[in-house]
Amino acid sequence: MNQSRSEAEACSMRTRSLNHSAYKLQYHIVWGTKYRRKWLKPYVKIALKKSLYATCKKYPTLFIQTVNTDEDHVHIQMEIPPSIAISDAVQKLKGISSIALRKEFKFIREMYLEKDGIWSVWIFVSSIGLNADHEVSNRVAGKKESQPRRPRSRCRPFRDTSLG
What we know:
Layout: H1 7-10, E1 16-17, E2 22-23, E3 26-33, H2 42-58, E4 63-69, E5 73-79, H3 86-104, H4 106-111, E6 119-127, H5 133-141
Antiparallel strand pairs: 1-2, 3-5, 3-6, 4-5
């Protein structure tokens, strides 16, 4: 898949098709580091992205739209076909990236001596509606849009004076 798409194309949801179905499904997926340890530094993020995109190359029905991290969790906006369970797709991404990051970074190997992995077991998943695509893309990319505050209602309760 060509990753040098235009920004306008990257922000829109595409209709994808398999042999017997067509779909437009995107998800916002979040998972954390084990014990919420803060080791996702910029240089680790580069290796993580490389691993995630390589995983999607192995599984061409998965498509990552955007990846971003904080120091202790990962945000991904991605397309997953209806034939694959979300948990299975996330398991592949977490498992393969765990192996790759342990192999590349000694401090991660030493931080997690047990073989259980480097990611927490929890995940957060929300589906992205057709109209919310741009909003979620900005959130995953780390762009904060300032939303206007709603003014408080200054209305007084209605009193019917016609009844006396």
